[in-house]
Amino acid sequence: MEEARLKWRMFCCVLGLSLICLGAGACFVPQWLGTLENNKGHLQELHQRNTELKQLQQDHPDMDMYRLEVEHRLKKVQGLLPDGPEAGRLMEVLQKQCDEHNVAMVEFAPKAVDSGGSGGKTEGLPSGLGELPVSLKLQGDYFAMQDFLVALPSCSRLLHVQSLSLEAKESGLLCSMELVGFYEK
Question: 87-184 maps to which CATH number?
Fold first, then answer.
């Protein structure tokens, strides 16, 4: 009888430990499955990235040359979108354009940016871009002003002309414009 009691106690202990293990498993298995799913998704992303890199390597066998080309393009883009709203750098770019096209910069006045956007065609900017609105007045003859305005879109900074007006003066044309220079935040 004592042996039967001992067996019964052992059975109850084993059964109790089994129930505890099942309860713990029921608590932790969903977490493990979630982690497993996350790892599976991450592994699929890495596999996709690996496939893209292999394709890139096939498309560009000379990776050092390709890297230099990409760095060169990146420098051009960084010039178009500087990393801050410095009005001085924008003024330098515009002054260089004026000098190249024999146009005098009469006024350069940065304006405050509205918190709700500029209200113009630049609404809905990507979150990484900022804008620096500027009021600009230029003076020059007709052909110099025409050359300046034609060359403006290809200058070394990303700009958007929001408004433009020309007025005839005795000394030539007076051009008043509102433009926005963009930069990376």
Answer: 3.30.70.60
